[in-house]
Each structure stands twice: as C-alpha cells, then as structure tokens.
Specification:
Elements lengths: L25 E4 L2 E4 L5 E2 L11
Antiparallel strand pairs: 1-2, 2-3
The structure holds zinc ion.
Zinc ion (ZN) binds next to loops.
Length: about 55
C-alpha cells in the first residue's frame, strides 16, 4: 500500500463510461477520449475543485 501525497491536487483519473451512451469502450484520443460505441470524441475538463457555495 503506497501512501499518496495529499497535496490537494486531484489526480487525472481515466473516464470509465461514455457520458453520451454509457459504453465502456473508451480509448485515448488526442486530448480526451473516444467512445468505440458511438464514435464520439470528448474531453474531460475540471472546472473547479473544492468550491463551496
Ligand atoms: Zn459513447
């Protein structure tokens, strides 16, 4: 078990489901991912972190 540093910077986690069709067949595509089921390419962007109203 490796302790990961808690610097407050979230790791870039891979996407597991296509946000459009829900398929799991995703492959890296340029800056984002490509869904093998619906052939959409999309990127995941972090807008904010730790935001509280
Ligand atoms: Zn899809």
């Amino acid at each position: 078990m490796i302790e990961e540093p808690t610097s407050g910077r979230a790791r870039q986690l891979p996407v597991f489901h296509c946000p459009y069709c829900g398929d799991e067949e995703l492959t890296p595509h340029e800056d984002g991912w490509r869904c093998g089921a619906c052939l959409r390419a999309f990127s995941v962007r972090l807008i904010a972190t730790g935001v509280q109203e």
